[in-house]
């Protein structure tokens, strides 16, 4: 159950990352050639691009530090121990 | 004279910091020397990674871009780098975990364990060949800046020796720990100086909005995309530049070395996340400074516009503060040279010498790496000697050349079916295409959309084709013993946790 919920959350975050990345890489949907109005001294598309960058930054921050989807220090020791143990066993088998 | 004192002081402080790392015993074992004994905290990691990537181009180049090409330049190195927060995390989470478990010290290690020694050696050579023109360009930039800042007291050629000598010295002494400390201090320094210069430039005309309104009245083009008949900042041009600069960052040695050096998961995540966020602010500023430069120092053309950063600093700040502002850009160049030289020296000693002579001891490996630092630096100074050497032009393909290893890295960590033949061929095809595009069509073919390449630039075309080669060849070939054996480690169930 929890793994299904995590899968859905992961998909949601990945979709958001993908969409916002495309918007950070190209002004599709918010830019247009030619004359443009200003927002706080900047062309509206440049202002929106910087805002999109800031939004993506916040979503990455949430994903990395405020969800159970990312890696945390509490898990580190267990993971490293398991990897080292298996590596040593494999080496012994080869010998 | 003030500038010479500032630069010399920066160099001496850097050497002293590295000496402290050396004296405190942080370079005793290979693990200490190459990856700081996996002991770096998040503050040092954040600013060290930032400084090792941001070159003189991010200060002087971006202000020149802003001056000549306007707001579209923001797509080159600002918000387009924010995706690196998750891209780096996904690509290097396993670099961190497996690196900690397997005591990896170089970027060749994951490729070697997953695909075998040939791929490991090819990777080292590709990264070295891509890095050298980039380092040469930075060293030449340092020489030019030093000559200009010292008003000829230090000539271009003396400058080529002066700063690289200090860089080599602190790299050889302090290893990764010393280099990271120096990078962090330089990163903080240039970030602060950009803020200070931004403040002075904008206050010259009553604040940011009034300044931009003045620029808009005189140069409305700079506020548009698709100007010059749709040629400048067209959608394909923006996408090509933005994607290239971001994807190019994923596979350089710096994120590998910093991932291995991180003390904690928290530090790793903070470093990857902060990079894009800081770029969003710190590189936006020089771009805006360049745009504002149009009303402070109007009429600069071509190469002259590359000096806009220093010129607006002189026009708006007291002399001593202007010297500090320009020195900020100077430290950006230093830290990039530092990161790349150290990454390559580590690659050569661990991925080539240690592979060829497995009996090499840890202490010998450190000595060999120190020698490689000196050799790489000497070669780069030699190539940089002629200021018109065309090799510096090649630096623009550095990102594209390294970026083609993206698929091999992704396959190593996330695709069980990936094969060594697929990884090797995709890398070689990608590198060959990048070099071919450069020699056929020059800088323009690499950076700007080409009709012959379906409106992609050479970088993206090479990147996509190398990806296609990777998937097709991996499907057509059978994984060998090395690939089969590596699956147990690279796809260990605990890694899905």
Specify the helix fraction band of chain B. over 70%
| CATH class categorisation of chain B | Mainly Alpha
**Widest β-sheet, arrangement of strands of chain A:** 1-2
- What is the overall number of helices of chain B? 23
What's the shape of chain A?
elongated
Give a brief outline of the structure:
The complex is a heterodimer of chains A (95) and B (497). With 95 residues, chain A is mostly helical. Chain A has helices at residues 2-25, 44-66, 73-94, and strands at residues 38-39, 42-43.
Structure, explained:
The complex is a heterodimer of chains A (95) and B (497). The model of chain A has no long low-confidence stretch (mean pLDDT 92). Chain A is built from three helices and two strands, in the order αββαα. Chain A has a two-stranded antiparallel sheet with strand order 1-2. Chain A is mainly alpha-helical and 95 residues long. Helices cover 73% and strands 4% of the residues of chain A. Chain A has one domain. Chain B has 23 helices and no strands. The model of chain B has no long low-confidence stretch (mean pLDDT 92). Chain B has a single domain, classed as Sodium/glucose cotransporter. Chain B is mainly α and 497 residues long. Chain B starts with a helix and ends in a 7-residue tail after the last helix. The chains are: A mainly alpha (95), B mainly alpha (497). At the A-B interface, α1, β2, α2 and α3 of A face α6, α10, α12, α14 and α23 of B.
Task: Give the secondary structure arrangement, pairings included.
The complex is a heterodimer of chains A (95) and B (497).
Chain A: H1 2-25, E1 38-39, E2 42-43, H2 44-66, H3 73-94
Antiparallel strand pairs in A: 1-2
Helix pairs in contact in A: 1-2
Chain B: H1 2-23, H2 30-35, H3 42-53, H4 56-69, H5 74-77, H6 84-102, H7 108-115, H8 117-149, H9 156-203, H10 208-218, H11 227-230, H12 235-250, H13 253-261, H14 265-282, H15 284-296, H16 308-316, H17 319-356, H18 362-384, H19 398-403, H20 406-414, H21 420-447, H22 458-476, H23 481-490
